[in-house]
User: What shape does this take?
Amino acid sequence: MSKIVAAVEALDISLLTRLCEEAELTAAENNEVHPFPTFHILSALLDADLSEARFLWKRLPPQCKADAETRAAWALAQALWQRDSRGFFEAAEQQWSKEAGHLVKELVRQKREAAIRHVERGYSRISMERAGATLGLNHSGLVDLCQRQEWVIEDGFILINNVKHNRDADNYAAVQQSELQMLTEQLIKLQTTS
Assistant: This one.
């Protein structure tokens, strides 16, 4: 158990996954119940492996599925599988043990950052309600995020400042232009030497 706790505290997901898999195999060999199904499901989710989480749930015995925290971890997986942002963030608000809570907090951080990138890339204007559901934030949390991201709130909508995204696109175009110039120069050299 101490290795599992150390992996959780360090957020060493690859080690946690390996330890959970070993524990599952050892338990199966000894006709015992998987000792860490919640950590195992959460490690699969943190590793962005929804298929592993689903197959793990299918092979868990009823005793594991009866555990409230394991069911809560499965609810997170289901919400992610169904692309239900609101359901995911609501499920994450469950009461968790200290270690599972540490993993869930990291998972929420990852999913919220991904949702922010999605909103920045996909919207120039989004309703507060939809943004709140997508990002798993209440009104005050959403207002704080808008300030940090330099988004403007106007008449119940968020106006996304795509300056950063546009700057990335401009940099990409500049790189393409410089590469095109280099290729043109090389072509001219080849033509003049032949």
Q: What stands out?
A: The first strand starts at residue 125 and ends at 127. Residues 1-122 form one domain.
